[in-house]
Amino acid sequence: MTQRPPSSLPTGRLRRLAGLARAGAGMARGMIDRDPVAPIARAVETLSELRGLATKVGQMGGIWSAMLPPEERARAEIILARLRSHTASSSAEAVRSLVEAELGAPIAELFATFEPEPFASASIGQVHRATLPDGTVVAVKVQHPGIAAALRSDLANVENIGGLATLLAFTDARAVMDEVRARFEAELDYADEARNLARFADLFAGDPEIDIPTLVPSLSSGRVLTTRFVEGADVGVAAGWPNARELGRVVRRFMKTSWLVHGLLFADPHAGNWIFHRDGRVTVLDFGCVVPFAEADRASLRRVLEAIERGDDDVARADLRSLVHAPAGHAGELLAESMRIALAPLALDRPARPDDLERIVRLSGEAKRRLLGKRLTVPPWTPLLLRALLGTTALLAGLEARCT
Known about the structure:
single chain, disordered N terminus, globular, alpha+beta, five-stranded antiparallel β-sheet, 404 residues
C-alpha cells in the first residue's frame, strides 16, 4: 500500500483552526457543487494533514458519501478510503525514537523485523508491520509525535467556538464537552486502549465469528500498542461478497452484545476499524473510544429495540425522548425519530439503506434548528451515542448496499 510521505504535524491552535475551516468549507461546497465529490477530495487533503480530531471528522464522511447517488458514491468511497488508510504519516526517525523511548530498548532488540513505512495511518497514530523473534507477525500502532498537543488544540477550538454544542443543539454543553474531551483524551492513552481490548477479547473469547486481535503486553505502552497482525478485506471489498448480508449480522451482534449486554458501547465504528473475512469472521479494531453504559440506560435502550422489533414506533419514540431528555413537541419528536431510524438496523433483520442516513441527517438537522437557543440537559454520552449510531448505520449501508 502506497503511503503519503511523512509530514510535520501542525499543533498550533490557529493553524489547526484555519485548516478545519478550509476542510469544512470544502465539504459544504459539496451541497451546491455540480460535482459533489470534488469538494470531498479537497477536504480529504486538508484533513489527512491535520490528523487528530480533524481526521475523525473526516472518517465520518462515510455518512455523507452514503447519501450520494450510486455512481457518485463509488467515487467518494475511493477518496474516503484514502483518508482512512493514507493519512499523512510521521517520519521513520520520529517513530523509531518514540518506540525505543516507550519500550526501553532498540527496535532491533525488540523485533526481528520492523517495517519503517506504515501500512496505515489514522487520526491518532500509524501502524507498522513487524515480526517477533519467534516469527509471529504483529501490528505495531505508534502514536503520532505531537498528536496530544494537536488534539487538545482541536478540542479547545471546538469548545471556544461552541461548535460541538451548536452542531448537536445542546446548549447546556459543559457536561457534554467534558465527556467528549475525556473520551478523546483517553484515546491518547494506549494503555487504556489495551485494557479495553483485553476486556473485549475476554467477552468474545471463543466466538467463531467475532475476532479481537491478541494484545502483546510486553511490547505495549502508553503510546505504543502491539497486537496480532490481521489480514482481510475492507468494507468496500466485502460488500461484493455473497456473504455480505451475514457479515452485516455479525456487526449487529457485536454492537448489540457489547453495548446492551456488557455495557460497553464501541463508539468509533467507522469503516476503517473493521476487517472482513470470506469465512464469515469479522475482526474489530481500535478500542480507544469505549463508552460505559449504566444498566438503567441499557434497560431503556433494550425496551426501545423491543418496541422497534414489534413495530410499536410510538412507544420507541417516547422512550427515546425520555432517555435523552428531549423536550415535548415537534422538535423532540424529530430527534427521537432520527434516533429510532438509526437504531432500526440493529433491531430489525433487514439491511441498512442509504436513505436511512438521508432521513437521519434531515430529521436531526431540523430538530437542531428548532432546538437552538433552548436550555437542554442531556446525558453527557449523547454525542458519542449519536456518533456510534451514525457510524454503524453508514458502515452497514455500505456493507449491505447490494443486499437491499
